[in-house]
Amino acid sequence: MIAAPVGEPAGPWTSGWSYGARHEGGLVFTTAMPSTEYHALLRAKVDARSDLVCTTHPLNYRAGTWEMLRIASKDVGPNDKVMVIRATIHGDEISGAMSILNYFDELVGYAHQRSLKLVLYPLGNPSGFDHRLRYNVDHHMGEGNNDFLRYVMDDGSIESDLGPGRPSTPWTIANDAALGIDLPEESRVMLELVQRDPLSQVVAAFDWHQDLVTDLPMCAYHYAFGDLARYGEIAARISEVVPLLAGYDMAGGFGEQIDDQGSVVPHTDGVAVRSDANGFIVRHDGSFSDFYQHIGATHSVATETTGATPMELACLVNWIWFTGVVDLLTSA
């Protein structure tokens, strides 16, 4: 079931909780654009500041070359705490990338004012973004482009998805040459970049998604780990904006296949994991967020809003998550 709709979404920003300047004036960017334009807009924002550095990394496909951007706080010291945000690894899920673009200065300012450093991967799949594809322009999904680790079972076999249980199972990174995993280009480059990041200093990681696989109505849900009760206030704030997906058996996004045009083929045989009353799902699936919780990040969350959720509200949900976790980190 889905929690009861909350009516007009005017209430939250009159309740005393700050949602940032982008909300008050409405979003500037609400629709997709060419990745080159998106990157140019972000570079201009970085160039206007003195506290960030931006690097570009080629993604080489049969159909051409695209760029992945990495934007990070300058001068990350050995004792600094770091938050990592990756958005739009599935190219048709644009709300994550739009969240970063619309809230960029607010995000950076909110973190830096609280002595928290950032590493941003704002557009994880630029070729898919350009072609409105979940996967890349070559229609090469490999074993999935949100592929970060594999579990090593007691009998030596390798598994990618343990569902909700057995989180202490030994694991290895997905680009370990001994595994021979077929990684799409965006996954291969992302893994290389992440392994150069100051992983021991990462205290929080976000993976910003948008559910375009299911036909669910407007709502939000979240993949997370550990003590979910600590996110109760964040979930309550989100519920003022969109309904939370409660008690739902979620299988969408797992075991997907694509056709010759790169479109996802519907399937009904995936292993489902049920969401709790606040829309939380615990799933050890070898993904970006699973990886960061395994390396010791205090918070590792993949956010989801459905395709039926208006872009302004989808971006607002990501902003609520961001500020909420920053507050948890800096108020302790």
What does this structure look like?
With 332 residues, this protein is α/β, with parallel strands linked by helices. The chain has a single domain (12-331), classed as 3-Layer(aba) Sandwich (Aminopeptidase). The chain has 9 helices and 15 strands. The strands form 4 sheets. The protein has an 8-stranded mixed β-sheet, with helices on both faces. A 3-stranded antiparallel β-sheet has the order 6-5-7, with helices on one face. A two-stranded antiparallel sheet has the order 10-13. α3 (95-102) crosses α9. It starts with 20 loop residues before the first helix and ends with a helix.
Helix content: 25-40%
CATH architecture: 3-Layer(aba) Sandwich
Q: N-to-C SSE series?
A: HHEEEHHEHEEEHEEHEEEEEHEH
Q: Approximately how much beta-strand content do the residues carry?
A: 15-25%
Number of helices: 9
Shape: globular
Structural class: alpha/beta
**Tally of DSSP β-strands:** 15
Q: How many domain units?
A: 1
Task: Explain the layout of strands and helices.
Elements lengths: L20 H5 L9 H13 L4 E10 L2 E10 L7 E7 L7 H8 L1 H9 L3 E6 L4 H6 L17 E4 L5 E2 L11 E3 L11 H10 L7 E7 L11 E4 L8 H8 L9 E2 L6 E2 L5 E2 L7 E2 L5 E2 L6 H7 L4 E7 L5 H21 L1
Parallel strand pairs: 3-4, 3-8, 8-15, 9-14
Antiparallel strand pairs: 1-2, 2-4, 5-6, 5-7, 9-15, 10-13, 11-12
